[in-house]
Amino acid sequence: MTVSDSVSMGRRIAEARSRSGLTQADLASAISLDRSVLAKIENGGRRVSALELARIATTLGERIEWFVMETPPAIVSHRNLEEPGAESPTIDRAIERVAFNVEFASQRDERWVTRSIDTLPRPRNSDEAEASSVTARSLLKLDDVAPLVDVARTFSDLGLLVFAFDLGRDAADAASVLLDRGGVAVVNGHLHVGRRRLAAAHELGHFLFADEYSVDWRVSDWGDDNAWEARLDRFARALLLPATGLTRMWADLEARGDDLRAKCVKVGSAFRVDMSTLARRLVEIGMIAQSEGRQVRAIRTTRADIVEFNLIVPDDLAAPYLPRPYEESVLRIYRHEMVSPARATDLLFDTWSEEDLPVLPNLPESAIWNLV
After folding, report:
1. Domain range for 273
2. Are residues 222 and 333 in the same domain?
3. Number of domains making up the chain
4. Are 251 and 162 contained in the same domain?
5. Which of 113, 226, 269, 345 holds its CA 20 to 30 A away from the CA of 250?
6. 303 and 320 co-located in one domain
7. Which residues of 37-50 are buried (b: 16+ CB within 10 A; e: fewer)?
8. Model pTM?
C-alpha cells in the first residue's frame, strides 16, 4: 500500500529528518528549498514533488520507497508509543527495509509458506525462561543435548527470517518485527559470531513471545534479572546452551582431566557461543563460582587451540546474510517477471548483481495474448 496524502508524506519526511538529527533549516539548505516551504511540506500543507522527494531521500540516507509505502503495522504501533531508533537509527532503518521487502515478496509469491505457531506465554521469572527455552527447542526439533547449529536456517522453519548486515560497532545488536505472516529479524553482522548467535536467539524470544517491535541495544548486558530483557537473555542462553547438554559435556571433559581453560574452549566451540555467554550460563546453573566466571570471560580461543583440539570454527550469520527461503522467493517472482532485474537485486539488498540472476527464456509472440 502506498502513502498518497500530503499529511502522511509530510509526517514521514519530518520523522526521517528528526531521526537524522537535522533541523528544518539544515535540510532545506541541503536540498535548495526555503525553510518555510519545507515546513509546509512537513505539515501537509504543500505536496512534495518527485524531484524534491528524491533530494530529501538522498540527503537523509533513506530509500524513496520508505516515504511512499505504508510502514508495517507493528512498526507504526511502536512509533505511536515512543520515538524509534533513538539509540540506533541505523538498525531501525535496516529492519524497516527488511520488513518492506519481505512483505513485498510474500504478497507476490504464491508459494510463500510461513508456519503458523502459537505464541508462548511470557516468562515471569528465570525458571519460566528456562522452561520456555525447552519448549522452543522442541518446536525447533532439538533435544535437550544437541547444539543449535544453524540458527538462521532453523529459525526460518518457525517463520522468523533472520538477516545480517554489517551495521558498524555503534549500532544495536539486533532488531525484530512481527509481520502479518511470520516475522523478520536483523542482526548486526559487525559482532563476533558468538554475539551474533546470541542476538538471533534473543530475537527468537521476541518473536515467540509476540513482541511487536524491538530494538536490542546490547544483548547480554542486561543487569537486572527481573527485567523483561534479562529474562529474554536468559531464554537465549538456555536455548543455545541447554542445561542437560552443557552439564553432560562438562562432566565428560572433567573426567578426561581437562583444566578449566580447555573445557571452556571445547564447550564454547561445540555449542558455538562466546566466552561471556558461556561464563554467565555456567554461573547461573551453578556449575562454577562467580570468581571462575571472571576467569572464563578472559579466555580467548587461539589458533593453536583450533588445531590441537580440532575445533569447529562457526561462521553463522556472517554479513551480509539473507535467509535462503527469502532468496528463493525473490527468484520465483523474478522468474514470473513480476519484478525487473534492478528491482530483484534491490530486494536482495544488492548482495546479488544482475549477472547473478537466472536468464529468463524469450517468450513467443503468441504470449502477448495471455497479457491481453
Report:
1. 243-308
2. yes
3. 3
4. no
5. 226
6. no
7. bbbbbbebebebee
8. 0.81
